[in-house]
Amino acid sequence: MADLRSLIATLRDDSADTAPQPDLAxxxxxxxxxxxxGLKVTLDERGDPAAVPAMPAxxxxxxxxxxxxxxxxxxxxxxxxxxxDYRPGSVTVEVTDDGRGAPAAGGGxxxxxxxxxxxxxxxxxxxxxxxxxxxxxxxxxxAGSGA
Length: 147
Known about the structure:
The chain has helices at residues 2-12, 27-36, 54-75, 110-120; strands at residues 40-46, 79-87, 90-97, 124-130, 133-141. It is α+β, with helices and mostly antiparallel strands. The two termini are 22 Å apart. The longest helix is centred in the middle third of the chain and has 22 residues, at 54-75. The mean pLDDT is 86. 33% of the residues are buried.
């Protein structure tokens, strides 16, 4: 069932049929692109990403990508922080900003798509207002990463 959910999440991604899947090395480009768009972004990676298998790596990338895109489009934020904590058996991704969050009725698949992608891998995604801004957090189990 998890494989099926993962396939559905991949098929829902419009770029999946024409572009190679992203990996964790692309996180620095995402951050650089957000900076070029005027957002002050920090990236704090803790631990060793080397043991993260392909599917969780893609999910991590997509959570950061969508979170930064939402921050730029909807939050009216001036800064964002991306923190990724690689631990044996799990990864936590957190993207926080100093904006006001997205409108209640969004027209895209952003947060729902992130939830589906993370859930398909056995993880949990939470998103919502926090003091001083908005936060997206994904907790993913990572099989084979030294659990």
